[in-house]
Design brief:
By secondary structure, the protein is α+β, with helices and mostly antiparallel strands. The relative contact order is 0.24. It has one domain: Thiol Ester Dehydrase, Chain A (Roll), CATH 3.10.129. The protein has a four-stranded antiparallel beta sheet with strand order 1-4-3-2, with helices on one face. The chain is 19% helix and 38% strand. The chain is elongated, with a radius of gyration of 15 Å.
Length: 102
């Protein structure tokens, strides 16, 4: 993870300590496995947009919904949003997911 000021100074987009969004996006895997019935599986494709930094101490909420399912195949597309404690979207996008057989 790039969190130091040296890295931050090379990026003009966001200010302050800037951890990468990868740990935050891990919340989507947990959400999918625990809260979306039958969605435990693996990501086939992801398209995330980083909208704001996730900083140490932020409380992140993950929300996802199934927006499409392939008939006859265990593949679905989900739309997901991560927000911080202020309601600011920090990451959003879609993922193509292959569901595991129960």
């Amino acid at each position: 993870m790039h969190v130091g000021d040296g890295f931050r100074r090379t990026r003009k987009v966001m200010r302050g300590t800037l951890p990468r969004q990868v740990p935050a996006s891990g919340l989507l895997s947990a959400l999918m496995a625990e809260e979306l019935p039958g969605m435990a599986g693996e990501f086939l494709q992801v398209n995330w947009s980083v909208c704001a930094p996730v900083r140490p101490g932020d409380e992140i909420t993950a929300e996802a919904r199934v927006v499409a399912a392939r008939e006859g195949k265990p593949i679905s597309r989900i739309a997901a949003t991560l927000t911080n404690q202020d309601g600011e979207i920090v990451l959003q996008g879609t993922a193509l997911v292959c569901r595991r057989a129960a």
